[in-house]
């Protein structure tokens, strides 16, 4: 089996990247930071080690840091405003959002099996109850209390 490569891009396509191999984490995050920054009840977030992340087009990238997390450098598109990736200087991981991965003709994420979410994290601050089979954790999967 070949190593999975997922291509991600902003809304307008001006900035894009690839992530290679299995993610260190793939989960639906219900934390308030993800909710507010994405305007969404929860977001499919993935962490990859630095060695697995590469920009394909980054000329239109604008970087910024938000209060409370100075170790996280976030990258957004100057043209469409979408944030596509952030680098954590503490862990040397990149965070990306699975919703931005390339889809097939039917709209499904390509090669989903290799990157599928395994849990709901920071579930305590959820805005909607989820009834799927995945574990619900009050922090990170396996490193916090499992709620459901
Ligand atoms: Zn863009
Ligand atoms: Zn979050």
Automatic annotation (TrEMBL):
Key words of the record: Lyase, Metal-binding, Zinc
SUPFAM superfamilies according to UniProt: Mss4-like
GO MF terms, alphabetically ordered: carbon-sulfur lyase activity; metal ion binding
Recorded family membership: Belongs to the Gfa family.
Protein name: Mss4-like protein
InterPro entries cross-referenced by the UniProt entry: CENP-V/GFA, Mss4-like_sf
One Pfam family here: GFA
Top-level taxon of the source organism: Eukaryota
CENP-V/GFA domain mapped to chain residues: 6-124
Residues spanning the membrane: none
